[in-house]
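Morning!

This is the sequence you dropped in the shared folder:
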Amino acid sequence: MGLKAIILKFGKMKKEMNPIVNVAVQILPRSSEVGTYELVDEAIRIIDQSGLKYRVTPFETVMEGDYDEIMVVVKKIQFACYNAGAETAMTYIKIQSSSDAPVRIEDKMEKYD
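The structure's back. Tokens below.
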């Protein structure tokens, strides 16, 4: 169901979220022929090519940007893993959003960088 269909079904919300969010994605592709790290590298390549701001961490990659654009990238990384030889994949997503301000990676990381 697209965003327009959701709005039609539920009506216009009184308060909406800022479109700039952080999404953490962890993809765990499995293949009997291709190594897991090789498949994950392919997913990270897709994220890099997206033009979104991102940060790779040991267990997940955090992306910053427009919610809808990020969801397209999440779909593309799954397809990329299958095209690179994955037979199955588990994808875990965490989303941080705000109703009144963009969510930025730096806001959480600046004191550690």
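Headline: The chain has one domain: 17-106.

More detail when I'm at my desk.
O.
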